[in-house]
Structure formats: structure tokens, C-alpha cells
Amino acid sequence: MEKRYQVFVSSTYEDLHEERQEVMHALLELDCIPAGMELFPAANEDQWTLIKNVIDDCDYYIVIVGGRYGSVDAEGMSYTEKEYRYALKREKPVIGFLHKDPEELPAKKTEKSEKNKKKLESFRSLVTEKMCQFWEAPADLGSKVSRSLIKLTKQHPATGWVRADELPSEDTKEDLLRLRKRVEELEGQLAEAQTQAPTGTEDLSQGDDGFQVLFSFTKSSDQWDLDNEEHTARHTVSWNDMFYAVSPRMMNEATEEQIRSDLCELVRSRTMKGLRKQFGKAQLKSFRVTSDTFRTILVQLKALGLITKSVRQRSVKDKNTYWKLTPYGDTTMTRLRAIRRK
Fold it and tell me: What are the boundaries of each domain within the chain?
């Protein structure tokens, strides 16, 4: 749907007639709708309400400042400054275009009274607090308006105007509303489904079901590791206990080696007492879950919908495989590890 932006052009009038023409031409080339003093060149209090309404309807606001302060209201503020302050109050995206050297302008285009010169200088200072450009000639001003407005529309996209025949019909609006509601319903169902066990996992070993973990360790007869012997053993661990041990690592992401390390520590802590009875005071260490067993555990946890591989982009030098919790895995971990009230 093609948009056209309405741009309010504010300035003094008689002294900047040629400059305004350049600006209007630049706006029309950008397919914008210019609005401003051409609609009400004789500014007065009766027209102030109309001016405010036009500013309200505009998407962007441009002010051109030359060498004159301009016509003033009853309080002594020029209508140009009054319009600018109103645009700021309405939080319109604004751009100021200040003459680079107003003292070089012809006398008829500059202020004669010291009072108005001071007001003009104060107004110029106010405009420089926002986005602004400096110009020297009408043609120079037109090109700067074009470039600056293109940049402003990208930084602050506005509502704009479209042709009435391009607007959606009432039937189309109702269809879009129904579709939006349906999407919200499906998103809610998806979010709920992700926190439940996947369909088809009922027949898989899980929860408190036991699984025999095959692991290896080394035995040394002295503290100097001069006589290492490698042994293998089995220990039955429930799926809940294994997931309890490894899941916190995957709240963000974890490498396979980190997960395997947590499993090894679980097996070591569970079997050390029994192994002590068997091997006495020998040094027992380097516990390691075998590769086949570790792969089986990963596949099972994945099949149960508890974990999934991470697809985050990484450095080509990083050859690790990363795993993370699924929403269901996160829910299960919370259920297992949360501290219950006694």
C-alpha cells in the first residue's frame, strides 16, 4: 500500500518566498504533501486553531529560518516560533534549516530592531537543539531538504496517507480480525503444548524407570598414580535422577562434554561407597560414562522431548555440539528441582 507523507513547512513568508518554492518542489518530487503558510499567509489569532489542526494532521515538520523573526502574536512570539514549539509539544519529527550567515542577507530580508534580532538568535539556538541543517541559497536548501527528509522518514516512520480505494473493506477488516484471533488461539495452544510431554512418548522408558549406566574408572594403589588399572562397572540410575543432574547446565546451553561431566559426577557420587568396600583404600578416579551409554542417554532425553540441539550460529572454530532445554524440559526440571514447602 503506497503512502504519502504530509509535511508542514513553517517559515516567515515574504522574505523566504523563493526558498519556500524550492522546498515545496523538493517535497512534491518525494511524493509528499506539503502544507503551511500558503494556506494562510496572513497569520493571526483567529487562524491559530486552524494552524494547530494542520500540524496535528502532518507526519513531519520543517522550519526554515532566514534573517527575519516574523510576525508576532499578542505575547510577542513569532508565529514561526509558535508553530515550532507546538510541533515539539506534539512530538512531531522535526528538521530545522537555518541560513548559514544571516548577516550576509540583503537588508530587506533581515531584522532591523535589536529586540527582534535577539529573539531571532534565541529561536535559532532553540532549533539547533534538534536535527538541523545550514543552507546558503534556495537551490542548496531544496537539495538538503530532500536528503534530510529521506533520512528522517527512515529513522521515524510515520502513519502517512493512502488512497481511499486502497483501504481494506469492512469485510476484509472482519476477516483480518478473525484471522488475528485465530493466530492468537493457535499460539496459545502451541505454547501450552510445548510444556507437555510430546505425543507418542507414553511407551518410552522415563521418570523413575531405571537405566543401567556403563562407566569406567581408574584404580591406583598409591597416591603417585604409578600403578593405574582401568575398570568398568554398571549402575542403575532413574531418568529423573539423570535429568535432575544435567538439566541446570542446559538452562542456557551446554556442550556435550559438560553434560557428560555432570553424568560422570552423578555416577561417581552414587557408586563410590560401594566401590570403597570392594577396593579398600585404593585411589579411585577418572570416572567416565562410556560413549555408547552417553549417546543412548542423549537420544532418550531428546526422544522424551526434554532437550534439543542448539542451532545458534557460532565461530567456525567451535566444533562443539550444544544442547538446551525444550519448554517441556524446562517445566520438568522446575518440577524436579523446585524446593517444596515442608
Answer: 6-165, 210-337
